Amino acid sequence: MLHSSERFDVGGVGVSPDHYIGGRRVASPRTFEARSPLDWSIKLADVARGDEATADTAVSAATAAFPAWAALSPAERSAYLHRLADLIDANIENLAAVECLDMAMLLESLRARVIARGALNFRNYADLAAAHEERVWSSRGTLNRVIRSGAGPTVIITPWNAPFMLSTWKCAPALAVGNTVILKPAEWSPLSASVLADLIDQAGFPPGVFNIVQGIGEEVGAALVADPRVRRISFTGSPQAARAIGAAAARNIVPFTAELGGKGAFIVCADADLDAAAKKASGQYDDSGQVCLAGTRLLVEASVRDAFLQRFHRFVDQHRLGDSRDPATTISPMIHPDHLARVDGFVQRARANGDRIVRGGRALEAGGLWYEPTLIEPKSNASEVVQKEIFGPVLTLQTFADEAEAIALANSTEYGLSGVVYTSDAARAARIGRGVRAGTVWVNTFLVRDLTAPFGGVGVSGIGREGGDYALDFQADLKTLQILEGSVR
């Protein structure tokens, strides 16, 4: 293995570009560039580009470390996770600075809530695992006990949006139940994961318990998920990648969970607080719409369409596109030139298709990776911009006549990750909330998460659930110990 101590200055933070395997930094002969969406001319780092040999080394390290880590009590593992959470809290400024430059999320958001959520993830799962009570009951003359134990090495593959928070969200339950981890961050925003590895090291985790492998998904990611020693796979990303990963998991009979794309409906009923609904709808442009949970399809009751739209425009007009480090900025640039071109392609095809561009519809004239907040009124529900995930600052507007039509439109895509309903009627909220096919439906709010609640999608939006005991049970092996009553003392 090649060992390296090189570090790049990223926002005043020294960041290693190398893998973290078996408690050591490991370089690769090949690299790929990490550039900043804030200014694409800025190269942040030359990042180690892993291959099959790198994947083998990482899985070997995780496999070797697993027995001792799994043998610790939940309380002993909890102590490590709490130390890590404390270190995250102490390094919020550094993590925010790196992630802002690497992914372009608003610096104030990173400081105020996103990075701290990473610490909360580790504390939450540490406490849940330590407080877990085994299920015990008597049946047919036997005493039954369900035991939760570590399963083995877990491969975790995370997306380029909100990379730090999503990495901690997935790594925390795996570590808490006694699994070892190989994290493969997205190649478009890999650097905050490297800072996390430094904090893992400072927290004193045993070598091999937590590993990071950098690289291209089709290369090192494919090798990781194909390794038969891997016992769990957790992925967030596109349905296309999930199909390939799921096929690899199936070959080795490995449990696999996937949180994939979204095309959420944002339903506004005539009895809703239209100001609140319009303001929240304008917030769907946050992070340039690069949020899988966003309610990108505005479904508005026909009788209040004009009143809602007037308010919506007023709130969108208050947005400011700019540098993510500027507190006045509300909409950040997009992650990559290729992604900007992809989003613009959807808009231009919609224009050619005869869909009405209500506002926006082009990249910022000043250049860079900013795209105007865009609203499209499609000529039919079959329009591509309605049916496909765009993952950018592009919303669609449709109207409905009654609850039945609202639910039918909400359920008319192949996605089912989330939905939003605005109404002042509790019975209507319950009917529509139950009727919308999605893993999470918010009523009169958005993106409020209870970490103990199940999270995931239906349809092509995913397989399985994360959050609370749902994540811990997925990461663990569950065993039933059944003892004949009276046969032991």
What does this 3D model show about the protein?
- The protein has 489 residues and is an alpha/beta fold.
- It folds into two domains: 2-260 and 457-481, Aldehyde Dehydrogenase, Chain A, domain 1; 265-443, Aldehyde Dehydrogenase, Chain A, domain 2.
- Helices cover 39% and strands 22% of the residues.
- It contains 15 helices and 23 strands.
- Helix 2 (74-90) runs antiparallel to helix 4 (107-131) and helix 3 (92-103) packs across helix 4.
- The termini are far apart.
Strand order of the largest sheet: 17-18-19-16-15-20-21
Q: Beta-strand percentage?
A: 15-25%
State the domain count.
2
CATH C-level class of the largest domain is Alpha Beta
Number of helices: 15
Could you name the CATH homologous superfamily of the largest domain? Aldehyde Dehydrogenase, Chain A, domain 1
Mind telling me the C-alpha Rg?
Answer: 23 Å
Which consecutive residue ranges, at least 5 long each, have pLDDT under 50? none
From the N-terminal CA to the C-terminal CA, the straight-line distance is 53 Å
What's the CATH topology label of the largest domain?
Answer: Aldehyde Dehydrogenase, Chain A, domain 1
Largest sheet: 7 strands, mixed
What class would the helix/strand composition place it in?
Answer: alpha/beta
What oligomerization state is this entry in? single chain
Mean pLDDT: 96
